[in-house]
Amino acid sequence: MQVVKLAHYSIRSFDLEKSSRFYERVLGFTPGYRPPFDFPGVWLYMGGDEKDFGTVHIIGIDPSNPEGLKKYLGDKEIPLTGTGTVDHIAFLVTGLVEFWDVFKAEGIAWRDRTVPSLGLHQVFIEDPSGVTIELNFPASEIDAVGSYASHASATVGEQP
């Protein structure tokens, strides 16, 4: 028995549209098929492949009609913002400079960190619900540009 890969992660959101837009515009995910559950939501996919049932499931919280969600997933208290019991979600990615440009255009704060012993450059952002997302780039990408400050003037990002 073994775990092969992350199937998906789910986020409960009070602003389904804003959360969905974030994952589409910032991370490039694509909305796709979602079964007709009795509560609002959207399933987002990496690319056009829908065979693995999505990467991010955003569950809409409808305070005026919470019964469908309660019946299917149970009732739980969640903070209005923040990661709650999930610390962060990580993705392996490429295109560091392009991501910086998207963050700046979207007004998203980020933190860059390099882990030299792993050959890994990490960028941390938060989605609209406050869930921390870690983007892992090959360290060679930061080596090629030096730092965000050498790429363009940082108004939102933070370089250690």
Automatic annotation (TrEMBL):
SUPFAM superfamilies reported in the protein's UniProt record: Glyoxalase/Bleomycin resistance protein/Dihydroxybiphenyl dioxygenase
Pfam families: Glyoxalase
Domain VOC per the UniProt entry, residue ranges: 5-138
InterPro entries linked to this entry: Glyas_Bleomycin-R_OHBP_Dase, Glyas_Fos-R_dOase_dom, VOC_core
Official protein name in the record: Glyoxalase
Origin species: Pseudomonas veronii
